[in-house]
Amino acid sequence: MKSLDTKCVQAGYDPKNGEPRVLPIVQSTTYVYETPEAMGDLFDLKASGYFYTRIGNPTNAGLEDKLNALEGGIGALATASGMSATLLAVLNLADSGDNFIASSNIYGGTYNLFNVTLRRMGVECRFVENDSSIEEIVSKIDDKTKFIFIETIANPAGKVADFEKFSKIAKEHGIVLMCDNTIATPYICRPFEHGVNVIVHASTKYLDGHATSVGGVIVDGGNFNYLGNPRYPLFNNPDDSYHGMVFGRDFGSACYITRARVVGMRDLGAIMAPMNAFLTVLGMDTLHLRMPRHSDNALAVAKALQSSDQVEWVKYAGLESDPDHERAVKYFDNCYCAGMVSFGIKGGKEAAMRFQKALKLFRIVTHIADSRSCVLHPATTTHRQLSDKDLEAAGVPANLIRLSVGTEGIEDILADVLGALEASK
Ligand code: PLP
After folding, report:
1. Residues 303, 270 share a domain
2. How far is CA 345 from CA 173, 314, 359, 395, in A?
3. pLDDT tens figures, 195-218
4. What distance in Å separates the CA atoms of residue 274 and residue 53, rounded to the nearest whole number?
5. What does pTM read for this prediction?
6. Quick one: 68 and 205 in the same domain?
7. Displacement of CA 65 from its chain's centroid (Å)
8. Ligand 1 centre from 202 Cα, in Å?
9. Which domain-ending residue is among 232, 253, 282?
10. Do 198 and 147 meet the contact criterion of CB atoms below 8 Å apart?
11. CA 247/CA 232 separation, integer angstroms
C-alpha cells in the first residue's frame, strides 16, 4: 500500500478467509491458552500473543497498525487519552532527576503537565520558544536531558514547528525528538520524515473526527539508536521486572514502543477501551476525505476574516501573509493546514461574547477537530483564571477566538461567521 488514501481506508486490518470484513470489537479482558507453559512464555515476553487487554487487544491493534502505517513508524500503542499518550511517552524516557526541553508553543494541557505535574515528580521541563535560537536551545541541554518536545501545529496558537532546527539539535546531541502531531494528522504531515523519533496523538481530535471517543496513540519511528547511548539507562541497563532483560539489546529498533507497552502500560494502565478504538478506526477510514475539506474550508474562513473590519488579526498558516506559511509549504502536503483558525476580534471580551452568541452553525464547545464547526473563547473558558496581562504573556490575548472549521458547506460556514461578526459590533 503506497497511497495515504488507501492506508486510511485499508491499513491496520486484513481479514482472512471467512473473517469479518469490518474490524471486530473484541470486548474481552482476557484470552485463553491451553497450557500454563504457553501463558508463562507470554509473561516472559518469549512468545507474542494477547493475554490481557491492558497489554494488548486486537481492536486496539487495528487502530495502532493503521496509524503506524500512516505515520511510517515501527509500532504504536493506543492509550486512554491524548494526555496519557504524552505522559507514557515521557515516562518511557525520563526518571526523577532528569530533564527535557519543550517548545512553549504547545497545547495548554500538555504545558500544564510539563510545567506543574511532571516538575512535582522531579522531571524538569526547560521551555524554549518555537523561534528560539539554536544557541539558546543548546544551552539548556545537559547529560540528563532526555528529549525535545514540539507540536506540529500548536493548539490554539496555530504556530508551525521548526522541524529542521529542532531535529538538527536533537541529532547533534544524540537526543530523542518527540512531536505531538494531533492537529496536522499524518494525512498532512509525517514528522518521522523530518527527523522526529517519537510521535504522540490525541486521537480524540481529527483521527476520530466525529467527537465520539477520547483516546491517544504513541508511535515509534524506530529511527533512534538507544543501545550504547549513556543518556538512556532505561534501555541499556537490565530490567529487574523482566529477569534482567535489556530493552535496547533485546528489542533492537522496536525497543522504545515495546518498553512503552510492557513496562509503561503494564504499570500505569491507561489503556484505550476497544469500543473507542473501533470508533476511531471508523473515523480514520475517511481521514483522507475530511482533512482536505477541513483545510479548504478553514482557508476560506481565514481569508474572509482577514478582509473583515471587525477583525484585528488572523492566525492561520495557510494564509500567504502568515509568518509560518513558508514552513507550511515546506512540511505540509498541498499546504493543507487543517481546520483550526484563531483570530482577534475588535472590541475585546464583550465583542467575543456577542460574536459567539450570534453564531448558529458553530456551537460553543471545549473541543476542536470534528466534522461539526465549533467555537471557543479561551479567555473566558480554558484560560479564564488569567488576567488580561497574563493572557497576553501566554500568547492567548483576551480577544482571541478559536474556530474549528468543520466539513459543512462553505457558503453556510461563511454566512454564519460573517453574520456573527456583524452582530458583534
Ligand atoms: N494534544 C493536543 C494538540 C490537543 O489538542 C489535546 C486536546 O485538546 C491533547 C493533546 C490532549 O488530548 P486528550 O484531550 O485526548 O487527553
Report:
1. no
2. 43, 9, 14, 15
3. 999 999 999 999 999 999 999 999
4. 9
5. 0.97
6. yes
7. 16
8. 5
9. 282
10. yes
11. 11
Give phi and psi for 236, each to the nearest 5: -120, -15
Ligand 1 centroid to Cα of residue 425, in Å, is 33
Total domains in the chain come to 2
- 253 and 322 part of one domain: no
Atom of ligand 1 nearest to the CA of 151: 3
Q: Are residues 267 and 297 in the same domain?
A: no
Asked if residue 121 and residue 99 are part of one domain, the reply reads yes
Domain range spanning residue 365?
Answer: 288-423
Strands of the sheet with 145-151, listed across from one edge: 75-79, 216-220, 198-202, 176-180, 145-151, 99-103, 124-128
CATH number for the domain spanning 330: value is 3.90.1150.10
CATH number at residue 153: 3.40.640.10
Is the pLDDT assigned to residue 249 strictly greater than 80?
yes
Kindly list the protein residues whose Cβ atom lies closer than 6 A to any atom of ligand 1: 81-83, 107, 109-110, 151, 155, 180, 182-183, 202, 204-205, 214, 216
The owner of cell 459567539 is: 356
Same domain membership, residue 332 and residue 233: no
Average pLDDT, the chain: 96
- For residues 138 and 81, membership in a common domain is answered with yes
Residue with cell 547529560: 143
Kindly report whether the peptide bond that precedes residue 156 is cis, defined as omega within 30 degrees of 0: yes
- Lowest-pLDDT range of 37-51, 71-85, 304-318, 408-422: 37-51
Q: Among 262, 282, 302, where does a domain finish?
A: 282
As given in the structure block, the three cell numbers for residue 98 are: 532528569
Distance CA 189, CA 184 (A): 6
Question: Maximum Cα–Cα distance for the chain, whole Å?
Answer: 74
Torsion of CA 52, 54, 60, 65, to 10 degrees: -90
